[in-house]
Every structure is written in structure tokens, then in C-alpha cells.
Amino acid sequence: MHVKDIMSADFKFARPQTTLREAAVLMRDGDYGYLPIGDSEKLKGAVTDRDIVIRAVAAGLSADTPVSEIMSESIIYCFEDDDIREAADMMKREQIRRLAVLNDAKRLVGIITLGDIARADEQRLAGEIELQVAQPA
């Protein structure tokens, strides 16, 4: 099974100048835990709900701070034609629960999550990822 068969193509982009408040509202309203940062399909970074809590709220940043201040610029990704086992191995290796999904032109086309893998009836793979992610880095 390929990543494109189970990924979510339902995602929103935030621009680098989007405020933390605006990003949090986008994430809440869309029920997203991962927000790509860029314009159109050009990925410049990403912010997770955890990034907002740890890098912004706990650090005392203003809600008007641009997301570019806390975004991760090194994006871990897979390709839409990759086998889901390859994506699962990458999640385990990097100790993450989500991956950006790119097409051959390296444009963002979706997000694959641990939940997507579990819903694809790959419970064993999902369990392996969860065990690895839970390990201290």
C-alpha cells in the first residue's frame, strides 16, 4: 500500500507571518496537529501543536509572534508513492507521529500520521511507531 492511499490531503498552509494566535485557531478549527508553513504548495517549515505549547507559550512569547519564530525549518517528509512501511520506518527512526507527503515535483500534497497508518489496518506498524516515539531521544 502506498502513502497516497492513506494520507490526508485535507490540510491548510499558514504563511510565515501568520501569528501564533491565527495558527492555533487554524489548527483548532481544522482539528490539525501539524500546520505546514509556506505559500501555496511551497513548504518552508512546519509547526505542531506541541511546538506552540513548548516553544511559544512556555517561553512566554506573545500570541502575536509570527509562526516563523518557532517553526521547524527542517521538514521530515516522504513521497506519495512510497510504501507505507517506508513512511513508518521513517517515523520510527525520527521519533515523530506525522510526515509531510510530497509529490515527485517536491510539492506538498498531504500529511500522513500514525493514525492514518492505524486506520489502514496496519496496527502492528502503528504500535511499533508509537513504541519508538515514546522512547527518550
TrEMBL record:
Coiled coil regions, renumbered to chain: none
Tell me which domain of life the UniProt entry assigns to the organism this sequence originates from: Bacteria
* Transmembrane regions: none
Q: Which residues form the CBS domain?
A: 7-65, 71-127
| Keywords for the protein's UniProt record, in alphabetical order | CBS domain
**Which Pfam family is one of this chain's hits?**
CBS
**The protein's name in its UniProt record:** CBS domain-containing protein
Organism field: Asticcacaulis benevestitus DSM 16100 = ATCC BAA-896
What lineage does UniProt assign to this protein's organism? Bacteria, Pseudomonadati, Pseudomonadota, Alphaproteobacteria, Caulobacterales
